[in-house]
Amino acid sequence: MERAQERVSTSGVNGAAEPPGGSKRTGAGVTTGIALELLVHGVGGARPEKMLNDPRIVRVTGDDTAAVFRRVDDAEAEDERADPHRAPVREAYVWCNLTSGNGTRALWLLLLPFMVVNLAHWMRPTARNRQGTVRFYGLLVRLAGLSLTVLLVAAACEVALDLTAWQCAGTRACAEAHSWLGFLSPTESGGGWWSAPGRRLALAAVVPAALTGLLWFLSRRTWSAYESQQPMAHAPEPADESIRTALGRPGFWYGRRLVARLRAAHTAAGLLTVAAALGSAAARHDREPGGPEALATLAGLLYAALIAGAVAVVWVVCRRGRSERHLDRELDARLVRLLPGGALALLLLTAVYAGWSRPGWQSAGRLPGDTTFGALTLLQGVIVLVLAVVAQLLHRAHPDPRAAMRGLGGPAVTTLACALGGVMSGGVSQRVADWLDGTGGTIEGPPVLLTWQASVIPAVLLVVLGLVGWLARRTLQLRRAELAAVEQDYEDGSGEPMDAGRTRRIASMRAMAALTDRAPRIVGITSTVTLLLGAAALIGAQATGDTPGEASHGAYAVVEGAAETAQALGSWLIGFGFLLFVTWGRRAYKDPAARRTIGILWDVGTFWPRASHPFAPPCYAERAVPDLTWRMATWTEATGGRLVISGHSQGSVLAAAAAWQLKPAVRARVALLTYGSPLERLYGRWFPAHFGPAALTSLHHDVACWRNLYRLTDPIGGPVHLPGDCGPEVDRAPLRDPLSYGRNEKHPLPSPILGHSDYQADPAFVEERENLLRRLQPGGTLPGPRPGTQESSGRSSE
C-alpha cells in the first residue's frame, strides 16, 4: 500500500503511544483537549488516501494487513499546543486486506457452505433465562457443520475412490480412454501390483486425505494470522449488561479454545470418512461366502474402531461451546493432538487392510455411496427441523417483531448451507463422471441420489425466477408510490417544471433500495422449497434406486418427458455452475479487482467468529475489533482528548462492536457516528440476540452520544429504529439524495445519486460530526450524568 512515509510510534503502557513532550499531564489527566475522528471504512475497502482526502499519509500503527493512517500534516498533532478550535485529527483504520488480500483468498470459495452454516449459529432469537435451550441451539448448528465436513470429504471420496479408482480404472474402455490410469487398470497394466482393487482404492484415498489436511492447514494458518490476537482484558460487565448483548463480554472475540477443539474434531471426521470409504469395499468382499476369515475379523475390528472414533468426534463437538465471559487462554493440547492423530493412524491401518492381496477380487458396479449420501441428507433434514422448533421456542419466549422470519432465520440459512454443500458435491461428481465417461456407457456414474438432487435444481430455479418476478412487480409499485414523494421532497417553490426522467430515476433508486427489507421472505420461501424438494429427491432415490429418467419409464408421456428434461437440465445447470465456480475462483486468484469483489462477500459473512465450523473463512473481526478497541482506549488514555469513531456500512458494525468492548468509563467518553449503517436493518433483524433493540439501546445509553445518517436510496444502510424516545436522538432525518434536484448556484452540474457511497460529501456529515464534538466535554472528563434513561434537554434531535 502506497504511503508517503511510515511512522513507528513509541510504545507506552499496553502498547499505547506515549504522550509527546508537548502534552501536559495533571492530576485529573491529560489536558491537551485534542479531538480525534477515527474513520472505519465499509465493505469493499477503501484507500486511506481517499478516506483522509489527502495523498500524503503516514501509517501510525499496524502492519500491511490492517493499519491506522493519518495525514502527514497531522503526524505530530499531539505535540501541538492545546487549541479547542483546532480541526479534529483524522485517522483511517484500513482493514480490507483482511478479506481481500493475496491470491489465496480465492481458495475461500471452497469454504462457502461452511461460512453460511457458521452464520446460522449467530442468528438465534433473543433469549433470557433459557441457557439450556440456547446451548442446544448451538449444538444443533455445530452438528450441521460437522455433517457438511463429512459431505465434502465424502464427495472427494466419491470422485477419487469410486468414479476414478473403482469404476474407470476397473473398466477397460474407460482406462483405455485415459492413459494416465493405465498403471491402475488390470487389463492395461497386465495385472500390475497397483491394479488390485484394494490397492487402487488405497492410492486414491490420498486425494480426500490430502483435502482434509489442506482444510486443517488453512484453518490453523488463518487462525494464527487472524484470530490469535488477544482482545483488551477487562472485567466482565454486570449481569444486566451481559443480557443485552454478548458482544461486550471479554472473551467474545477470542474463540481460540473452541476453534482448536472443533478443528481437531472435523479433521478427525474427515479422515474417518476416508477410512470408512476405503475399508467398506474390502469388507464387503471379505464378508461374502468363502471370503478370508482373518480379514473378515480384521474388518470387524476396524469397523469397531471407526465407530469409536465417530463417537469421540461427536462427543467433542457436542461437549463444549463458546466461552465468552473471560479470555480462555487454555488449549486442550492432548485432545487437539490425539484425536486427529488417532484418526490418521486408523486410516493408515485401513489402507494396509484394503491393500492386502485378495486373489480373484474384481471391481464391479458402484461403491455404496447412495447409503452414505442418503444418510447425510436425512441427518441434515432432521437437524434443520429440530433447529426450527428450538428457534420458535426461543422466539415465542421473547417475541421480537423486527426479527427476520419470526426467529427462523437460523434454520433457513442452515438449509441453504446444506443445499449449497450438496450442489457443490454433486457438481464435482457429475462433472468428473462426464469427463471420465466420455461418450457414455463405460461406467455407471455417481450415486443415484446425486442425480435426483441435480434434477430438482430446475424446480428451485423456477421458484427463484418467480420471486424475482415478484420483486420486479413490487419495485414498479414502489416506484409509482415514490414519484409523488420525490416531487414533494424537491419542491422548492420556484415554479419551475420537474424533470420526469430525473424524478423516475430517483424514485427507482428508492424503490430498489427498499427491496432489501423483502430479503427475509425470499430466503424463507427459497429455503422451504429447497427442504421439500430435497426430501422428495431422497424419497425418490431410495424408493426407485434409479435415476429420475429411468424411474419414469412406463409412466405417462408427460411425466416421463418432465423427468428426463429435469434430469438433463439439472445435470447441465450443475455443470455450468461448477465451471462458473472454477472460473470465478481462477479469476479471483489472478485479478486483485475480482478478489476485492469476492471480498465483499467475506466482509459480510466472516464478521462472526467461527463458532460452529472451524474450516469456515477466518473471522476478520477477531483482529479488527481488538485493533479498534486498543486504539481508542490507548489514545484516550494518552491524550485525554475527545474521540468520535466514524463508521460507514460494515465499518459501523465494527465500530459498535469495538465500543462494546471498551471499559464503561472509556465508552462513556466516545461519540459514535454511523452512516449507511446496517446495524438495525440487517444485523438487528437477522442477528436479534446480539444486535436487537435491547442491545442497540444499551449502546446508545453507554456511549457519550450517537448519531446515525442514512438515505432512502441506500439499499444497505437505514435508521436504527430505537424504541421510544431513543429514536429521534440517534437517527437524523433521511439525507437528500441527490443533494440537488437540478442545476443551481451551489450545484451548477447535475448532482449524482449516491446511494450507499460518499456520505462524507454531504454537508450533514460535517455538521453532525461537529455537533458530536461539541457534545463531548473537552479535557478528558466524563459527560454529566443522565437522569434516568434520558439525557438532559441539551441532547437535541438535530
Give your account of this protein's structure.
With 798 residues, this protein is mainly alpha-helical. Helices cover 56% and strands 6% of the residues. It is built from 28 helices and ten strands. The chain has helices at residues 48-52, 97-100, 112-121, 131-168, 172-177, 197-204, 206-227, 239-244, 256-286, 293-319, 333-354, 369-397, 409-437, 448-455, 457-489, 500-514, 519-544, 548-551, 557-590, 592-605, 621-639, 650-661, 664-667, 679-686, 688-691, 693-702, 726-730, 763-775, and strands at 5-6, 25-26, 29-30, 35-40, 57-62, 67-71, 89-94, 642-648, 670-675, 705-709. The chain has an eight-stranded mixed sheet with strand order 1-5-6-7-4-8-9-10, with helices on both faces. A two-stranded antiparallel ribbon has the order 2-3. The chain is globular, with a radius of gyration of 30 Å.
Show the helix and strand layout.
Blueprint: E1 5-6, E2 25-26, E3 29-30, E4 35-40, H1 48-52, E5 57-62, E6 67-71, E7 89-94, H2 97-100, H3 112-121, H4 131-168, H5 172-177, H6 197-204, H7 206-227, H8 239-244, H9 256-286, H10 293-319, H11 333-354, H12 369-397, H13 409-437, H14 448-455, H15 457-489, H16 500-514, H17 519-544, H18 548-551, H19 557-590, H20 592-605, H21 621-639, E8 642-648, H22 650-661, H23 664-667, E9 670-675, H24 679-686, H25 688-691, H26 693-702, E10 705-709, H27 726-730, H28 763-775
Parallel strand pairs: 1-5, 4-7, 4-8, 8-9, 9-10
Antiparallel strand pairs: 2-3, 5-6, 6-7
Helix pairs in contact: 3-4, 3-13, 4-6, 4-7, 4-9, 4-12, 4-13, 6-11, 7-9, 9-10, 9-11, 10-11, 12-13, 12-17, 13-14, 13-17, 13-19, 14-17, 14-19, 15-16, 15-17, 19-20, 21-22
